[in-house]
Design a protein that fits this description.
Order of helices and strands: HHHHHHH
Number of helices: 7
Distance between the termini: 16 Å
Structural class: mainly alpha
Shape: globular
Helix content: 55-70%
Largest sheet: none
Oligomer: single chain
Length: 148
Amino acid sequence: MLKRDYIMRLIRELAEALELLLKKDTGRQREEIGRMYGEFVGPADFYRTAPMDDVMDSFARFAPDERLQRMEMLAELYYAEAGMAPGPAGGELLRRSLALFGFIDSHDRTFSIGRRAKMADISKRLAGAAEGGSATSGAGGDCPADGA
């Protein structure tokens, strides 16, 4: 129970940090997000470039009862960073975020309206990009968070 409380506190801290981050200048945002990757999930360079199979395998280093929450932290980081990344890089971050949110949604016992809203937002942005728009229009974090 204490471990679950600790992970939930980490998720809240990440959400608060991302919210504050979006109020800073873009250069500072990318630097801070890189730091958050390291603090919450692991090396930013790995998580930004590794194939999704390797990303998913990397969660084996976390305790089983912690994995979904760590995945959610990474999905939130991808989602927030996608709003700052231009063109195809932003689209790739959105696809990664959507894949993680989808996996979490199908394996977590907790229903999350915030997660579902983000998944709908990402799908809409990716569809808009496929039609010639920008997948990254609208900064990550525009959807209301549900605290989980």
